């Protein structure tokens, strides 16, 4: 038995349903049924009830693409801010450096505090800080671009179904956009105006992620075609 | 606190010094998400109380040795601005502030799913900009909203208010003068969905029967406030952009 | 222990410098422009005077309390002024609860200097019993959200709180006892100090630095002027250095901008 409609805005403690269901993310099973644990939109997928949270931080998941900032350098690893309660750890073995001798080489020659990297999460289980890697193609240090920070819960909406939303923004603004699952986004365009437009759209999506009709409004906002290109 | 009540705090007809009836709450004003740097924040006015709460976390614990391996640490600081009361208060934490920081933390922790974030800390900061009786309750309300604003997973929102006895009558939501000169003050925090009392204190003199009635009065007040908190959170998001439509949407982006 | 929010990324730093070389700032402002300033006066009725000031995202609330106390030994016939700043832990992930640290103390002393040296309050009018009882004006600055330039927001909030402060009229009876009457009178405010803070990034001065700009700057300078354009307080911060010409350039900018702030924000 359902007590709320699909995509209704729910508050922590709201009773969502009673009966044969499974609790998905941001839903817990309590005394009288299933309840929301965060403010968000409730969705029903088969027998799973989950709440798409409006606000919330980033919890790393294996294979997530993240954009991070190096904040500390150790003897054989770097500590990376990935916008999570848990800092990413990047071991030198997870870079493309073939040989590294800690007695002879200095880690800061590869990456130093303040450097921005595109990385992938290898593993994370909450008992230890997440391990990340920059070994694969497309990963590594970033030397220029505009770093935008959005609430991590908005990232799925920003990407869209099979990338539809983010591809729309990329094609209309001509910008390269790397979206980290952790809410850090890199925007690189040919002109400052293109980047500024992309950032404005990203902010618009962040603000209105939970509303309907957003895809249409975004489409209208960034124009029907890139006439200037 | 047993007061003689030099002046009449409540008339025979049950009218209180500020015009309220015995069971009336003071007017409440709520603003959520007003501080940019904090992960979650809220501002609440309850009568003349003006209280700000901010939440940071879950985040790394400093100093490291305080971290708990299986759950998040909850830290709470209740603090009053020097200009918040009639006579300027020194900014250094008083014994009262230390006590209230502890009981407020204990009032909020039961609803938080701390096990989701081992080895982290969730910091709750409450600043009283103006005080007029019932600041710990108002602080808890602001903190509940700030926690929701920060996306901290919770079983329920905690609401709080105080009941008490003034000139022989049981009243709800004591203001400053009622608190100072009344016969009893009973602050309560309550999580309605869990049917759980999470904060309970009392000072004064009440018979057992009065105590029970006052407790129920306070719990009832908490339920009223709880409904307002939900409305405030709903209103924050429904005011932005379109109203969310009912029904299942096909082919919509945003599925993770 | 470095909280990662204290480290600005290299690409953000690069972007700020690139834009500056074209005379632009990250948020589109001109080099001498302030962010939007919003003011709410009298936000705390229990305080004698209060104000909440937002400069961009930076939010500071100041409350003024006036009480009877002892004068400073070196000025027995004048009221006393005490400025305190709380960098509340609500305002930034890097602020921790605890006694005032070097940042809040520096901020408090700079705000104090502006008010004291400009003689914003006619402290002599606050003497009740010379050498014994005077009015002490407590200015408590509460930083609620830190998005850069706490100096100017704090100074504005403090001066606004003083301007709007209403205090009980105190009288001294024949027995030397001080009594507060019910009548409320304004504090004797005679001057309106305004501070203008600039960050120096590369070779440029940017007025009202945002948080990012503060993290990239190698030095900052705060110049406080009074209503006649006299310089009454200056504070250099950061390990960078200034030439004499640069200092005078900063002073010129401060005189220009403080006039605007005095007119548009303080209303005098």
- Order of H and E elements of chain A: EEEEEEEEEEEEEEHHEEHH
Morphology of chain B: globular
Helix residue percentage of chain A: 10-25%
Termini separation of chain B comes to 56 Å
> Strand order across the biggest sheet of chain A?
8-9-10-12-11
Structural class of chain A: alpha+beta
Descriptive report:
The complex is a heterotrimer of chains A (229), B (256) and C (268). With 229 residues, chain A is α+β, with helices and mostly antiparallel strands. Chain A has helices at 155-159, 164-173, 192-208, 214-221; strands spanning 9-10, 15-17, 22-23, 27-29, 34-36, 40-45, 48-53, 65-73, 77-81, 88-91, 116-123, 131-133, 140-142, 146-149, 176-179, 184-188. Chain A has 3 domains: 9-53, OB fold (Dihydrolipoamide Acetyltransferase, E2P) (Beta Barrel), CATH 2.40.50; 65-142, OB fold (Dihydrolipoamide Acetyltransferase, E2P) (Beta Barrel); 146-221, Ribosomal Protein S8, Chain: A, domain 1. Chain A contains 4 helices and 16 strands. Chain A has a 5-stranded mixed beta barrel. Residues 225-229 of chain A have low confidence and may be disordered. Chain B is α+β, with helices and mostly antiparallel strands and 256 residues long. Chain B has helices at 95-108, 135-149, 176-181, 208-238; strands at 28-32, 40-46, 49-60, 73-80, 120-130, 159-166, 169-172, 184-191, 196-200, 203-204. Chain B is globular. The N and C termini of chain B lie far apart (56 Å). In chain C, the strands form 3 sheets. In chain C, strands 1, 2, 3, 4, 5 and 6 form a 6-stranded mixed beta sheet that branches. A 4-stranded antiparallel beta sheet of chain C has the order 10-9-11-12. In chain C, strands 7-8 form a two-stranded antiparallel ribbon. The termini of chain C are far apart. Chain C has helices at residues 10-21, 102-117, 150-163, 211-216, 244-266, and strands at residues 37-41, 49-55, 58-69, 80-87, 127-129, 133-145, 166-172, 178-186, 194-201, 204-207, 219-225, 231-237. Classes of the chains: A alpha+beta (229), B alpha+beta (256), C alpha+beta (268). Chains in contact: A-B, A-C, B-C. The A-C interface holds A 69, 71-72, 81, 87, 113-116, 142-147 and C 2, 4, 7-15.
């Amino acid at each position: 038995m359902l007590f709320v409609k699909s995509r209704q805005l729910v508050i922590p403690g709201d009773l969502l349903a009673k009966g044969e269901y499974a609790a998905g993310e941001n839903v817990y099973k309590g005394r009288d049924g299933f309840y929301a644990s965060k403010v968000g939109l409730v969705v029903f997928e088969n027998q799973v009830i989950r709440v798409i949270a409006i606000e919330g931080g980033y919890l790393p998941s294996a294979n997530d693409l993240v954009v991070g900032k190096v904040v500390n350098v150790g003897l054989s690893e770097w500590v990376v801010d990935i916008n999570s309660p848990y800092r990413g750890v990047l071991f030198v073995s997870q870079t493309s450096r073939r040989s590294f001798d800690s007695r002879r080489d200095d880690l800061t020659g590869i990456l130093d505090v303040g450097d921005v990297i595109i990385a992938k999460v290898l593993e994370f289980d909450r008992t230890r800080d997440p391990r990340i890697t920059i070994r694969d193609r497309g990963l590594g240090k970033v030397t220029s671009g505009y770093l935008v920070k959005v609430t991590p819960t908005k990232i799925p909406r920003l990407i869209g179904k099979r990338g539809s939303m983010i591809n729309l923004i990329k094609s209309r603004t001509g910008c390269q956009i790397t979206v980290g699952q952790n809410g850090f986004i890199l925007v690189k365009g040919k002109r400052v105006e293109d980047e500024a437009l992309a950032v404005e759209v990203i902010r618009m999506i962040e603000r209105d992620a939970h509303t309907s009709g957003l895809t249409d409004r975004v489409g209208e906002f960034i124009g029907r075609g890139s006439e200037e290109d | 606190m047993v007061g003689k009540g030099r002046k009449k705090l409540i008339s025979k007809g049950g009218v209180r010094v500020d015009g309220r009836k015995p069971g009336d709450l003071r007017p409440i004003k709520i603003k959520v998400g007003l501080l940019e740097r904090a992960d979650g924040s809220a501002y609440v006015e309850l009568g003349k109380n003006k209280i700000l709460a901010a939440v940071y976390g879950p985040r790394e614990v400093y100093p490291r040795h305080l971290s708990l391996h299986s759950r998040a640490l909850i830290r709470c600081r209740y603090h009053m601005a020097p200009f918040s009361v009639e006579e300027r208060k020194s900014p250094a934490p008083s014994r009262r502030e230390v006590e209230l920081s502890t009981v407020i933390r204990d009032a909020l922790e039961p609803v938080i799913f701390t096990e989701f974030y081992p080895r982290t800390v969730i910091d709750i900061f409450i600043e009283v900009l103006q005080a007029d009786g019932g600041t710990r309750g108002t602080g808890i309300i602001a903190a509940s909203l700030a926690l929701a604003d920060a996306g901290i997973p919770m079983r329920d929102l905690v609401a709080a208010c105080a009941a008490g006895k003034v000139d022989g009558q049981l009243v709800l939501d004591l203001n400053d003068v009622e608190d100072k000169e009344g016969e009893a003050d009973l602050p309560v925090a309550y999580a309605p969905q869990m049917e759980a009392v999470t904060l309970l204190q009392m000072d004064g003199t009440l018979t057992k029967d009065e105590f029970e009635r006052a407790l129920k009065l306070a719990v009832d007040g908490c339920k009223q406030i709880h409904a307002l908190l939900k409305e405030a959170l709903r209103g924050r998001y429904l005011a932005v952009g379109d109203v969310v439509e009912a029904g299942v949407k096909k082919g919509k982006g945003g599925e993770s | 222990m470095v909280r990662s929010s204290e480290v600005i990324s290299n690409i953000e730093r690069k972007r700020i410098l690139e834009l500056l070389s074209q005379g632009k700032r990250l948020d589109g402002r001109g080099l001498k422009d302030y962010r939007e300033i919003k003011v709410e006066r009298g936000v705390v009725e229990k305080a004698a005077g209060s104000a909440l000031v937002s400069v961009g995202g930076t939010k500071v609330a100041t409350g003024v309390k006036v009480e009877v106390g002892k004068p400073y030994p070196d000025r027995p016939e004048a009221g006393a002024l005490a400025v305190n700043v709380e960098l509340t832990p609500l305002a930034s992930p890097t602020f921790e609860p605890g006694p005032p640290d070097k940042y809040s103390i520096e901020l408090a002393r700079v705000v104090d200097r502006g008010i004291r040296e400009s003689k914003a309050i006619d402290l002599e009018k606050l003497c009740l019993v010379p050498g014994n009882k005077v009015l002490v004006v407590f200015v408590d600055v509460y930083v609620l959200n830190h998005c850069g330039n706490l100096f100017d927001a704090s100074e504005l909030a403090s001066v606004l709180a003083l301007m709007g402060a209403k205090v009980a009229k105190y009288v001294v009876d024949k027995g030397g006892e001080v009594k507060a009457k019910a009548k409320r009178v304004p504090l004797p405010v005679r001057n309106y100090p305004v501070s203008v803070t600039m960050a120096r990034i590369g070779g440029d001065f940017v007025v009202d630095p945002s948080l990012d700009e503060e993290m990239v700057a190698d030095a900052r300078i705060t110049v406080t002027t009074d209503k006649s354009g006299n310089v009454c307080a200056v504070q250099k911060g950061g390990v960078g250095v200034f030439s004499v010409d640069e200092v005078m350039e900063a002073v010129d900018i401060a005189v220009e901008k403080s006039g605007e702030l005095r007119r548009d924000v303080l209303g005098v």
